[in-house]
Structures are given as structure tokens and as C-alpha cells.
Amino acid sequence: MKKVLILSGPTHEYFDPVRFIGNASSGKMGKALAEEAIRRGMDVEFISGPVPESNLPKHGHITRVTSAGEMLAAAKEKFAAADLIIFAAAVADFQPLEKSAEKFPKVGNHITIELKPTPDIAATLCANKRKDQIAIGFALQTHNGETRAREKLISKNLNGVILNTPATLGADSGLFTWIDSQGLESWGSLDKAKCAERVFSKIESRP
């Protein structure tokens, strides 16, 4: 039985006890991927950022995290045992340089928060990816999508990238394009369950 590690959902990077930097990722794509993997008889390790219970798979081993740092730490523990890793999480790109222990009061007209990059989870893990491991990523882009997805494919040592758009966030469907070293395959508009099916079909058809 193949072991698959799936990272899903957003991350929330708190700058005080109640406010955070994040995005509108719902975790629906990750859930669809997990359910397709289970349907194909795979052993699923599922790491999710903050999402509703309804956007978690009903089966598989689930680890819940909040921040990018926590997601990376959890994934490090499970990476070596995985045959297939799918980076479907929409990780926040930045985190506060410092987190306040108290809620910022609403005073004045402006507030300044210094930010620093969050850890690059895919690049960190895949730097030591074995030849027998397959890693697939998602690239959500507003422009120059193909170029940026191909850059991600190479810089993060991935075997394939699924390009999509911001309209996919929180939705049940989206526009998806598969990109790997062999070329590009436009899948058009698909619901996320069908996209997950396509992803695994591409992986299983690899030579």
C-alpha cells in the first residue's frame, strides 16, 4: 500500500492573540485528494491548517496545525515514510516579525506590522527528496501562471505542479492545468473531486 502525505488548508500567522495573516483557502482540494487516495487504497497522512471539520477527510490519520512553522514541523516527521507527497496547502507567505501577547488596541489611523517570510515547506522538505519519492505541488497565480509554475517545479524539486487561480479558493471547482517536465496539459474547469482523480491518474501513469 502506498503511503501519501497531503498538506491542506491555509495557515494562520497571528500577530496578536486574535488577529492573523491568512487567506481564503478552505481545504476542499486537500480533502478531495485525500478521499481519492483512500478510494485507491492508499494510506493517508493528512496535515491540515485551520478549516471546518466538514473540510477534513473522514478517514486517514489527521494532524491539525495553525501556522506554517507548525505545518513544516509536522510534515518533517512524516516525510521520510511517504511514497507520495502532495502540497495542496495555501501557506501564508509572511508572518509577523514579532507577536504581541496582548490585543492591539484600535487607536490612531495607522498600524505598522513588520513581516518576515514563512518557511518554504515544499522546498525545505523536497531538498532531501529521494528518487523513489514523488512530490506534487499547487501553484495559485494571478498572472504569468505557467512561467511561475515552471519556476516552482524546478526550485522546489517537484515532479508536477497543478496551476490554478484565486477563484479556486473556497470554491467547489476551478480552472486547473497540469505542468511537469514533459509539458503542459490544460484540464479546464473541474470540480475538485474530478481534479483529484486527474492528479492521481497522472501520477499512476508515470513511467
Please tell me about this protein's structure.
There is one protein chain. The chain is of the alpha/beta class. It has five helices and twelve strands. The protein has helices spanning 28-39, 68-79, 121-126, 145-155, 192-204; strands spanning 3-8, 13-14, 20-21, 43-48, 61-64, 84-87, 94-96, 115-117, 134-140, 160-164, 173-180, 183-191. The strands form three sheets. An eight-stranded mixed β-sheet has the order 5-4-1-6-9-10-11-12, sandwiched between helices. A hairpin with an 8-residue loop joins strand 10 and strand 11. Helix 1 (28-39) crosses helix 5 (192-204). It starts with a strand and ends with a helix.
Short overview:
With 207 residues, the protein is of the alpha/beta class. The chain has helices at 28-39, 68-79, 121-126, 145-155, 192-204, and strands spanning 3-8, 13-14, 20-21, 43-48, 61-64, 84-87, 94-96, 115-117, 134-140, 160-164, 173-180, 183-191.
- How many domains? 1
Shape field? globular
How are the strands of the largest sheet arranged? Answer: 5-4-1-6-9-10-11-12
Fraction of residues in helix:
25-40%
Q: State the low-pLDDT regions, or none.
A: none
The CATH topology turns out to be Rossmann fold
What is the name of the CATH class?
A: Alpha Beta
Please state roughly what percent of the residues sit in beta strands, choosing from under 5%, 5-15%, 15-25%, 25-35%, 35-45% or over 45%: 25-35%
Q: Mean of residue pLDDT?
A: 94
- Compute the separation of the termini in Å: 19 Å
What is the name of the CATH architecture?
3-Layer(aba) Sandwich
Q: Tell me which oligomeric state these chains represent.
A: single chain
- Tell me the name of the CATH homologous superfamily: CoaB-like
The biggest beta sheet, please? Answer: 8 strands, mixed
Count of runs of 4 or more consecutive helical residues: 5
SS content category: alpha/beta
Cα-atom Rg, whole angstroms? 17 Å
User: Which sequence of SSEs, written as H and E, runs from N to C?
Assistant: EEEHEEHEEEHEHEEEH
Query: Quick one: how many beta strands?
Result: 12
